[in-house]
Specification:
The chain crosses the membrane at residues 81-103, 109-131, 143-166, 172-190. This protein has 204 residues and is mainly α. The protein has helices at 2-102, 109-130, 137-160, 169-203. The chain starts with a helix and ends with a helix.
């Protein structure tokens, strides 16, 4: 009887030892799987970090290239705008007066020519600098203001020096002066009004 109990105990101990060995093996397998999974995750993270670093460097290079292009484009735009202003000045100051004198056209027509050429030239220059395709109200307003001031600055000195003279010239100068004053006031007054209207519309 005692021998049977001893055998059973020994058998139970062997089973427990076997279970312990199996558990240890399972734990080792789980540890191996965990380590492999952690290593795989770590490798994936390193790959992602490396990819993000490359993308960051690429984005920085693209940003620098874009800034360089914008800077060069702005410089080119200003150079072209200065050329256009020079051409416009040549037309107003040299070519138009020369044509009027050579063709013996009445000198009063110089003001009409100056106004039209300056208006169209300023429209092109302002539109070119703004980079917009259609003409907007701001560009038209600038062109009208500059053309009127140009005609005024040409008309008054010529009239004062006696180069141009006709009946009622003084009245025209007075009215023209008032017109220029109104145009300048409206030019600077409408801009804050436009900004106010835009802000009100954006809040809605």
């Amino acid at each position: 009887m005692a021998e049977d109990e001893g055998n059973e105990l020994e058998k139970s101990v062997d089973e427990l030892n076997q279970q312990r060995i199996d558990l240890e093996k399972e734990i080792n397998d789980l540890n191996l799987l965990k380590n492999e999974k952690l290593k795989s995750i770590n490798d994936e993270l390193e790959i992602k970090i490396e990819w993000m670093d490359k993308e960051r460097i690429k984005a920085i290079k693209e940003r620098d290239n874009l800034l360089r292009k914008v800077r060069h484009s702005n410089e080119k735009s200003w150079k072209n705008a200065l050329k256009m202003v020079g051409i416009l000045g040549f037309l107003d100051l040299v070519l138009i007066p020369a044509i009027i004198i050579l063709l013996s056209i009445p000198l009063q027509w110089i003001f009409v020519s100056l106004g039209l050429v300056t208006f169209l030239g300023m429209m092109l220059i302002v539109n070119y600098m703004s980079g917009t395709s259609p003409f907007n109200t701001g560009e038209i307003r600038k062109a009208i203001t500059v053309s009127l001031i140009t005609v005024y600055l040409a008309f008054v000195p010529l009239l004062t020096m006696g180069v141009v003279g006709f009946p009622g010239a003084q009245t025209i100068v007075t009215n023209f002066t008032w017109l220029i004053a109104v145009v300048i006031v409206l030019y600077f007054a409408t801009r804050p009004l436009e900004e106010y209207i835009k802000n009100m519309n954006s809040k809605k």
